[in-house]
Every structure is written in C-alpha cells, then in structure tokens.
C-alpha cells in the first residue's frame, strides 16, 4: 500500500464517492486512503487457486466468493479493505453491489511488503467484523498456511499448516477451513507456483 497525497482526512461516504472516480483501488483506514499496489504472479496464482476451489465447493450453497477487486467494510464507518479472497454466506450480502459487510472467511496472500500489516493492524480491523469466523494467511514463498479461527469462547486460535508437517508423500497435508466446511491438499493452493531457491529470493528482495 502507498499513502495517497490527499492531505485532509476523508469521511467514509466521501471516500466511497471519491474512489469511484479513481483509476486504481484505495483502502480506507482512519480517514486516510492508501493506493493498492500490484502483487507478484505467484501471489495472483495462489489467490486464484483458492478462489476457484472455494467457488466450486460452495456452488449452490448460497455463498459468494470474491477476489481482490471486491471491497470489504469493517463497518459503514470504515475501515475498508480489499482482501485477496473472501467468502460471505450472509443473506445481507446477497444483493450487495459495491461492499461486502458480513464475510465469514477472509484470506490474504503474504508478500514481504505487507506481511507485517496483514498479521497486525489489518487483522485487528478484520476482528471487528462480527460474522468473521476464519482469517487465513498464505505464504507465497513456501508451502505454509496459517488459519486463525474464532472458537466458542470468542478467542482466535491459530492452526498452522506446512508441507514439512506431512508425514508421508502418499498422505499429503490437507488444509481445512471450517467456516465453509472446506478442505483440500495444500498443494492445490500452490498449483502452477514455482518456488525460487533461497538465494534467488534474497536477490529479488534487495
């Protein structure tokens, strides 16, 4: 994300009307707007793999799957974000045209520039969404998925999935998202993704 040059804080409705006139997407946080920057090709592939798998799984079940062009609102007063993937099964979102307010699952594909924010402040914002049951973080550089689930006591619990945890090649590790009764091999999320050797990853990050 890149902060907008606009100097004055914006009201939520002002932001929504202003963004409609812009050529790119902006997130809205505490009265400020932030331009959304493009991700890498592996980042895009992972988000597409997840969204496609969820779409197939949820077809005919009254849920909708959205990718990065869809905006989620923490409330009508903000913040507003563009998750990589989200699912809503709430009737109140079925006729929405611009904003999803009641998602049950949100997933972000991590990148070096946004990982700290996705784990920290963004997750704080998302936790204010009362319908949210799972928050998923997918690493774009290794086969690693972290799933935060809201338990019956109202606490967020972490379940981590890593290909290194698979015990045999025959029984590949499966990722599970309980909010939408979905599970799949972790490799499905990384289909068509080629990982760089560590030294090449370091060179690209310089």
Question: What does this 3D model show about the protein?
Answer:
- By secondary structure, the chain is α+β, with helices and mostly antiparallel strands.
- It has 2 domains: 1-37, no CATH class; 39-205, tt1808, chain A, CATH 3.90.1570.10.
- The protein contains 6 helices and 14 strands.
- The strands form 4 sheets. A 6-stranded mixed β-sheet has the order 4-7-9-10-11-12. It has a 3-stranded antiparallel β-sheet with strand order 1-3-2, with helices on one face.
- Strand 10 and strand 11 (144-150) form a beta hairpin.
- The two termini are 18 Å apart.
Secondary structure elements and pairings:
Blueprint: E1 2-3, H1 12-19, E2 26-29, E3 32-35, H2 41-58, E4 64-67, E5 71-73, E6 80-81, E7 85-88, E8 99-100, E9 105-110, H3 115-119, H4 121-126, E10 134-139, E11 144-150, E12 156-162, E13 174-177, E14 182-185, H5 186-189, H6 198-205
Parallel strand pairs: 5-8, 9-10
Antiparallel strand pairs: 1-3, 2-3, 4-7, 5-6, 7-9, 10-11, 11-12, 13-14
| The CATH H-level homologous superfamily of the largest domain | tt1808, chain A
Mean pLDDT: 89
**Residue share in helices?**
10-25%
Radius of gyration: 17 Å
In what range is the share of β-strand residues? 25-35%
The CATH class of the largest domain: Alpha Beta
Shape: globular
Major β-sheet profile: 6 strands, mixed
**Topology-level CATH name of the largest domain:** tt1808, chain A
**Overall structural domain count:** 2
Distance between the termini: 18 Å
Strand order of the largest sheet: 4-7-9-10-11-12
Strand-and-helix sequence, N→C? EHEEHEEEEEEHHEEEEEHH
Task: Give the second-level CATH assignment, the architecture of the largest domain.
Answer: Alpha-Beta Complex
């Amino acid at each position: 994300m890149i902060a907008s040059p606009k100097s004055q804080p914006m009201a939520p409705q002002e932001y929504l009307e202003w963004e409609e006139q812009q050529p790119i997407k902006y997130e809205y946080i505490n009265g400020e707007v932030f331009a959304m920057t493009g991700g890498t090709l592996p980042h895009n592939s992972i988000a597409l793999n997840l969204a496609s798998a969820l779409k197939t799984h949820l077809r005919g079940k009254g849920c909708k799957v959205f990718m990065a062009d869809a905006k989620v609102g923490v409330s009508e007063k903000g913040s507003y974000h563009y998750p990589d993937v989200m699912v809503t099964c709430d009737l109140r979102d079925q006729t929405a045209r611009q904003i999803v307010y009641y998602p049950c699952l949100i997933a972000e594909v991590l990148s070096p520039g946004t990982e700290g924010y996705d784990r920290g402040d963004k997750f704080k914002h998302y936790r204010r969404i009362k319908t949210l049951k799972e928050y998923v973080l997918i690493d774009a550089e290794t086969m690693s998925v972290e799933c935060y689930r809201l338990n019956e006591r109202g606490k967020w619990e972490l379940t981590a999935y890593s290909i290194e945890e698979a015990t045999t090649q025959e029984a590949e590790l499966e990722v599970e998202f309980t909010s939408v009764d979905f599970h799949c091999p972790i490799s499905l999320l990384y289909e068509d993704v080629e990982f760089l050797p560590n030294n090449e990853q370091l060179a690209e990050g310089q």
